[in-house]
Amino acid sequence: MRLESLSTLNYRNLAPCTLRFGAGVTGVFGENGAGKTNLLEAIYLALTGQTDVGRLEQLVQSGESEAYVRADLESGGSLSVQEVGLGRGRRQLKVDGVRVRAGDLPRGSAVWIRPEDSELVFGSPTLRRAYLDSLLSRLSARYGQQLGRYERTVSQRNAALKGGEAWAMAVWDDALVKLGTEIITFRRRALTRLGELATDANAALGSRKTLELKLLETTTPETYAADLTGRRAEELARGSTVSGPHRDDLVLTLGGFSASEYASRGEGRTVALALRRAELELLAERFGEQPVLLIDDFSAELDPGRRAFLLELAAGVPQAIVTGTERPPGAAAQYWAQSGRFTPLDPLDGPLDMKPEKKAELEEVH
Ligand SMILES: Nc1ncnc2c1ncn2[C@@H]1O[C@H](COP(=O)(O)OP(=O)(O)OP(=O)(O)O)[C@@H](O)[C@H]1O
C-alpha cells in the first residue's frame, strides 16, 4: 500500500491542499501547533476510515459545517481513491466513488505511532482492550462483526438486568456465551503471535526485561454459562454484566511484573513502541503488504535508543511519514509545516533556522 497523495478541505486547521507522497520516508517538520498531527490524523482517517475523536465535529474546521479528506492509493499495481466526508456526527466513506462502510476499507493500510501511546501501558484496561479489539477487528472482519454483536447484547442484557427481568436472562445468556466464546478464542489465538512479535520488538529496543502479553480473563469458554448463572443475584443487584470479554484486560508484564503498575515511564514508552512494531508486523503478515507507517513527533522521543529505533523502523518500510519539530534525518522528501500549510522543501537544504533568507522566502509564499 502506498499513499500517492492526500487532499483535504476544511479539515481542522489544515488549509485546503493536495500533498504528494513518494516511496521512502517523508519528513514533515514545523513548530508546535502547525498542523503536523492533524495531517497524520487526516491520512489515517482517509486510509482506514477510523478516528478516535469523541465527536466527529472536532475534525471539521471551526466555522465550517463539513470536511473532506481524499487519499489516492496504489496497491499491487492498481490505483484507487478513498474519500471521507464529515458532517455533524456523520461520516461518509467512498472507494472509487462508491459508498462503503468502514469495514469495507483495506484493513491493513496504516499504523500510527504517537507520543501518547504510553497510555496503552499506563492507562486503564479499557484503553488496552480497545487497542486489542481494534487490531483484531483489522485482522479479521468477522471478529469486528461478532464484537459489535456481543457489545450490543451486553447493553441489552444490562437494560434487562436493570429492569429486574430475571426471567429473560436465559435468552441473553445463550447469545452472550456463543458470541463471547468466539471472541475469547480469537483473542487467545491472535495474542500468541502478537505476544511473540512484541517480545522480540521489546528486546530489539534494548530492554533487558522480557515483555509478555497475557489476557486477564473474567471467564473462560468452558465456564462462561455457569459464571453467568452463578452471579445472577449480584448482576441483578448491580444492573450490569460482570463477567465476559468486555471486562477482560490485556496484561503487559515486564520481567514478570505488571508494566502498568511497576514500569518506569521510559520502560513504558519502550513497551508501547514494541506494541506498535508488533502491530505493523502482524498486519504485514496478515495482508502480505506493508502498511503506511505514520510516526507523530519523533522529536518528542528524547531517548537516543528509542529515537534511533523509530527512525530505523521508518527507514525499513516502503513508505513512512514522520513528523517532528526538527527535520527527521534521512528523509527522501520534506515538507515544512506552518499554520496548517505544507511547503515541499529540497531534502538537501540545510536546517531552516540556519537559512533565514529561505525561511523568509517560504513565509512570503504562505
Ligand atoms: N476543528 C478545528 N478547527 C480549526 N483548528 C483546529 C481544529 N482542531 C484543532 N485545531 C488547531 O490545530 C492546531 C494543532 O495542530 P496539531 O496538533 O496538528 O499541531 P502539531 O503541529 O502536531 O503541534 P505539536 O508539535 O505541538 O504536536 C491547534 O492550533 C488547534 O487549535
TrEMBL record:
PROSITE patterns: RECF_1, RECF_2. It is found in: Cytoplasm. InterPro entries: DNA-binding_RecF (IPR001238), DNA-binding_RecF_CS (IPR018078), P-loop_NTPase (IPR027417), RecF/RecN/SMC_N (IPR003395), RecF_2 (IPR042174). Its main location: cytoplasm. ATP binds at residues 30-37. Keywords: ATP-binding, Cytoplasm, DNA damage, DNA repair, DNA replication, DNA-binding, Nucleotide-binding, SOS response. It comes from the Bacteria. This is DNA replication and repair protein RecF. It comes from Deinococcus radiopugnans ATCC 19172. The lineage of its organism: Bacteria, Thermotogati, Deinococcota, Deinococci, Deinococcales. The gene is recF.
